TrEMBL record:
Family classification: Belongs to the EamA transporter family.
GO cellular component, one term: plasma membrane
Topology of this chain in the membrane: Multi-pass membrane protein
Membrane-spanning intervals of the chain: 55-75, 87-108, 114-135, 142-160, 172-188, 200-220, 226-248, 260-280, 286-303
Major site of localization recorded for this protein: membrane
Record protein name field: DMT family transporter
Claim: Transmembrane helix is one of the keywords in the record: yes
InterPro entries in the cross-refs: AA-Vitamin_Transporters, EamA_dom, EmrE-like
Length: 307
């Protein structure tokens, strides 16, 4: 596919939203499937952090290998990176994979799949606040600030209900994961202008996942059991990561960061629905419905001019 055809595909009036929705659907499905993976490998809530890091490292490391293999086949050459590109790729690996998923995997094991998906949506608000630091064309407006405030009210409601209880290693880590996610999106928007999105994504996932797996093994992380079902779940998580991150990075190359990142509000909706279907979690409580309404209202405030 030529660069012009790729640009038309990823900026099209219909194709761009559909691709962004596909990414958020895949990421939303990760919440219940990570929990299924934990159960299949015997990783309980009391499992060591190193075991969870090993699980995350295998997922993202192999996802990076898949992206690099597909990208190399498409380009008909190995997707190596230049010396000048090493810094951006290492930074992407650190923020997008290592930091984001240390917080994600530990946090998700200490909260529900439904609540975790809602908290992850805060990455959209972090992206709105952080975009002016990266791109001069993105201005922080009163509507943007108001939208972020309303969105965070929704997050607080979902996290604590009436008493606003908030556990650092659960809900707190999910918010930190969301902040790292937003940072990686802004970095991808910046670096994808000069580096192939497939190379940026593939090496970021492979190096970051390798670091997580190495840390898990070094700390004594082991799977209590290995089953065919667990391997199948892990394979699905590897595939969804490879597809979603590759598409997302390419979307960020051709579109403003705010326009792409705002689709993250769909993650809690997909995550909630899939958690109900797959895990049978009790999700339809008034506090979750109110939180989703506030999050969506915040998104509308941020984007009402575009709409």
């Amino acid at each position: 596919m030529t660069d012009l055809k790729q640009k038309n595909l990823f900026t099209g009036r219909l194709s761009m939203p559909l691709l962004a929705v596909l990414c958020t659907l895949l990421w939303g499905s990760a919440f219940p499937f990570v929990k299924l993976g934990y159960a299949a490998f015997g990783i309980g809530g009391d499992a060591s952090v190193y075991t969870k890091l090993l699980f995350a490292g295998l997922r993202f490391g192999f996802a990076g290998v898949v992206v690099l293999a597909v990208g190399s086949a498409a380009a008909r050459r190995p997707l190596f990176f230049k010396k000048s590109e090493a810094g951006p790729i290492l930074l992407m690996a650190l923020v997008q994979t290592v930091l984001q998923y240390i917080f994600f995997y530990v946090g998700l094991s200490n909260t529900s799949g439904t609540l975790g998906s809602i908290l992850t949506s805060t990455s959209a608000f972090f992206a709105v606040l952080g975009a002016p630091l990266f791109f001069r064309s993105d201005k922080l407006t009163g509507a943007g600030v108001a939208g972020c405030a309303v969105g965070f009210l929704g997050v607080l409601l979902a996290a604590g209900g009436g008493d606003l209880a908030f556990r650092l290693t659960g809900e707190g880590f999910m918010v930190l994961s969301a902040a790292a996610n937003a940072g990686s999106s802004l970095l991808a928007r910046k670096y994808a202008q000069g580096i192939s999105p497939m190379a940026l994504t593939g090496w970021g996932l492979a190096l970051g996942g390798g670091a997580l797996a190495a840390a898990g093994l070094a700390g004594g992380g082991r799977f209590p059991q290995v089953t065919g079902g667990g391997i199948a779940v892990l394979a699905y998580l590897i595939l969804l990561s490879a597809v979603a991150f590759s598409l997302w990075t390419t979307l960020l190359k051709y579109n403003p960061a705010g326009r792409v990142c705002i689709f993250n509000f769909l993650i809690p909706i997909f995550g909630t629905l899939l958690s109900i279907l797959v895990l049978g979690e009790e999700a339809l409580q008034l506090k979750y419905l109110g939180a989703l309404a506030l999050v969506c209202a915040g998104i509308w405030l941020v984007n009402r001019k575009k709409a």
